[in-house]
Amino acid sequence: MKYEGRREKMVRTQIEARGVSDPAVLRAIRKIPRHRFLPEAFQDQAYDDCPLPIGHKQTISQPYTVAVMTEALGLTGRERVLEIGTGSGYQSAILAELAEWVYSIERIPELAKSARELLDELGYDNVAIRVGDGTRGWKSEAPFDRIMVTAGAPKVPEPLLQQLGEGGRLVIPVGDPYTQTMTRVTRRGSEFQHESLGAYRFVELIGEYGWDK
């Protein structure tokens, strides 16, 4: 019960109060036990207004950031979503609540394994996870209605643009290793419209079309 109260307070004070208003997004965040996606040592901080370490020099994003990125996708429940950077699996669970199917790529095998196990335990059977270079996307399952990248990139990876379906949206932080601009890209035929959603800081997107290891 202590976690439920903290989760409700997190949604009201950190997310709703800062402008996130999509009812479906708020319901998903209220439902999912964020503390379960953290190492035991950090579970007591799960509903604080900050990112937290999940091992392997990776983090679970600040709750507000998760909400903003998810709302920016504009999910209706029918989409096929590609997620780059499974991490703990928390964002995957949020997406699974809001989309028809989620395809998630994680480059660190240990994180992919633990995320898979927890998502299975929580009953999310509409999430496929594989280990690989997320900057290359998942060509065999393309096109995607939505793409979310949960790490900072020097530019939008070209394969992800090509795997985005007509009218689709891609949300990605783009910039240098220290600060990025959250960017929403919408595909209109062969044209890609870019919108800025503010400044953020993420771990680096490692891969052929991201930062070098």
Short description:
With 213 residues, this protein is an alpha/beta fold. Helices cover 29% and strands 28% of the residues.
Protein described:
The structure is a single chain. The chain is α/β, with parallel strands linked by helices and 213 residues long. The chain has a domain at 61-200: Vaccinia Virus protein VP39 (Rossmann fold, 3-Layer(aba) Sandwich). The chain is built from six helices and nine strands, in the order H-H-E-E-H-E-H-E-H-E-E-H-E-E-E. The protein has helices at residues 2-15, 23-31, 63-73, 90-98, 109-121, 158-162, and strands at residues 52-55, 58-60, 80-84, 101-106, 127-131, 144-149, 164-175, 180-188, 191-200. The strands form two sheets. It has a seven-stranded mixed beta sheet. Helix 1 packs across helix 3 (63-73). The longest helix has 14 residues, at 2-15. It is globular. The termini are far apart. The model has no long low-confidence stretch (mean pLDDT 97).
